[in-house]
Write a structure and sequence with these properties.
Layout: E1 3-8, H1 16-23, E2 29-32, E3 41-45, E4 48-52, E5 65-68, E6 73-74, H2 76-88, E7 97-100, E8 104-105, H3 108-117, H4 119-123, H5 129-137, H6 150-170, H7 179-193, E9 197-198, H8 200-209, E10 214-217, H9 241-248, E11 255-263, E12 266-268, H10 281-289, E13 302-304, E14 306-307, H11 308-318, E15 322-326, E16 336-344, E17 350-351, H12 358-363, E18 365-372, H13 389-402, E19 406-410, E20 418-420
Parallel strand pairs: 1-10, 1-11, 2-5, 2-10, 5-7, 6-8, 7-9, 11-15, 14-16, 15-19
Antiparallel strand pairs: 3-4, 12-13, 16-17, 16-18, 19-20
Helix pairs in contact: 3-5, 6-7
The structure holds guanosine-5'-diphosphate (GDP), 6-O-phosphoryl inosine monophosphate and magnesium ion (MG).
């Protein structure tokens, strides 16, 4: 099983960090393939909580090497802060963290342009992600490899900053940037990042040849994918499975497991359509019990019931071979639990088709199947058979509808609050 890909199946924050940390015990390499410091992946031990934005969630397993792939856009300040935090916790980072020489860098002007352009319209995280990917595809980005040659860096930065200054001044009326100051900052950064830079594609190819186990860690979620998500309310990268190949340089034939992380209900941060959103007391309850506040920006997450129409779409695109259901504990104590199975279209017809078209999605009405709730606290449950009967009925329904087995059920933020599951295995 050379490559396992872990992918958020919804709008992000499904609990990928917890599951990747858990699975990395059996991995040699954990590699991030897209996104940047817009991600916030939480890992909890005891009463301590750590949020990783760029460093892969396998870093707390000492035998694991972590890779930040070419598909990631790197904020130098964020990555150095994170490395410092991990070192302070007593973990070795040098030699265990490799940063692709081909990854693009987030520059101060990316955040400024985002602030001026699409922060409030889309509800982005303010981490400069969109403008950095724009530069990448416009072929005017600055890459990690550019840091290695001071003259090249100076030339590229100068050209880029001059262009950005013209835009910032004339289009947005914003303050101009100081070319020399930015060059100095990034030259300093080069000294710090140097020990981590590597041709990670070659490294991964060699590792796969040696039969090493690689886990590719997705950020964000499938419904935020720039091609398949609810455009334009999306992020600017490919969290879906193809992103793992292009964001790391691994062939699709090496991917044997694709794990869809499914939160037991739905959440979304930022703007955009969300058919099963609950703007009532139940939505409030999910937010309060699930602590649904952004790990990166602290914004309250919008909450709603599980949406199987959206999840079938996500399953079709990613080809999930198994699911990990997270935050099942948050549903404990509800009298009934609802699951959206169809959308009712404006003309009254029922549909199971997810349209990523915003205007269509905004007009659909979710049709729910109701399930009996359960009152039991799930804490301490270790075996699938010990999960409440009503919870198993709920999970069984989800697995059947998606036609994918559930292998893990998460009942709390800690590593040990995880139950191995065989639900749906017979069907697969
Ligand atoms: P990610 O971006 O997908 O890694 O998810 P986040 O870390 O942004 O958000 C998930 C939140 O839920 C974090 O605070 C986790 O500690 C927490 N969490 C993960 N799994 C569970 C679970 O099964 N139950 C509960 N109650 N919390 C969980
Ligand atoms: P993790 O990896 C949830 C959302 C933003 C916004 C949209 C575009 O923790 O699951 P961007 O800054 O990427 O240009 O914002 O995407 N978003 C996320 N939502 N989890 C994330 O990451 C997200 N990363 C971006 O809120 O709606
Ligand atoms: Mg998150």
């Amino acid at each position: 099983m050379p490559v396992t890909v872990v992918i958020g199946s919804q709008w992000g924050d499904e609990g990928k960090g917890k599951i990747v940390d858990l699975l990395s015990e059996r991995m040699d390499i954990v590699a991030r393939y897209q996104g940047g410091a817009n991600a916030g992946h939480t890992i909890v031990w005891g009463d301590r909580k750590f949020v990783l934005h760029l460093v892969p969630s396998g870093i707390f397993n000492e035998g694991v090497t972590c890779v930040i792939g070419n598909g990631v856009v790197i904020d130098p300040v964020a990555v150095m802060d994170e490395i410092r935090m991990i070192k302070e916790l007593g973990y070795e980072v040098e030699g265990r963290l490799l940063i692709s020489h081909n990854a693009h860098l987030i520059m101060p002007y990316h955040k400024m342009i985002e602030e001026a352009r699409d922060r409030s319209a889309i509800g982005t995280t303010g981490r400069g992600i969109g403008p950095a990917y724009v530069d990448k595809f416009a072929r005017s980005g600055i890459r990690v490899v550019d840091l290695l040659d001071r003259d090249v860096l100076r030339r590229k930065l100068k050209a880029s900053i001059e262009e950005k200054n013209a835009i910032l001044k004339s289009v947005y009326g914003a303050q101009e940037l100081d070319v020399e100051q930015i060059i100095e900052e990034y030259v300093e950064f080069d000294k710090l990042i140097d020990p981590y830079i590597k041709d990670t594609t070659e490294y991964l190819a060699d590792a796969l040849k040696q039969g090493k186990q690689v886990l590719a860690e997705g950020a964000q979620g499938s419904l935020l994918d720039v091609d398949f998500g609810t455009y334009p309310f999306v992020t600017s990268s490919h969290p879906t499975v193809g992103g793992a190949c292009t964001g790391l340089g691994i062939p699709p034939t090496e991917i044997r497991r694709v794990i869809g992380i499914v939160k037991a209900y739905s959440t979304r941060v930022g703007h955009g359509p969300f058919p099963t959103e609950l703007s009532d007391a139940t939505g409030e309850r999910l937010r309060a019990v699930g602590h649904e506040f952004g790990a990166t920006t602290g914004r309250p997450r919008r909450c709603g019931w599980l949406d199987l129409v959206a999840l079938r779409y996500s399953t079709a695109i990613n080809g999930f071979t198994e699911l990990a259901i997270t935050k099942l504990d948050v549903l404990s104590g509800l009298d009934t639990v609802e699951v959206c199975t169809h959308y009712r279209l404006p003309d009254g017809r029922l549909s199971q088709r997810f349209s990523s078209d915003v205007a269509t999605l905004e007009r659909v009405e979710p049709v729910y199947e109701r399930f009996e709730g359960w009152s039991e606290n799930l804490d301490g449950i270790e075996r699938e058979d010990d999960l409440p009967k009503a919870a198993r009925v709920y999970l069984d329904f989800v697995s059947r509808r998606l036609e994918v087995p559930i292998r893990l059920v998460s009942t709390g933020p800690h590593r040990d609050q995880t139950v191995h599951s065989t639900i749906g295995s017979a069907a697969s």
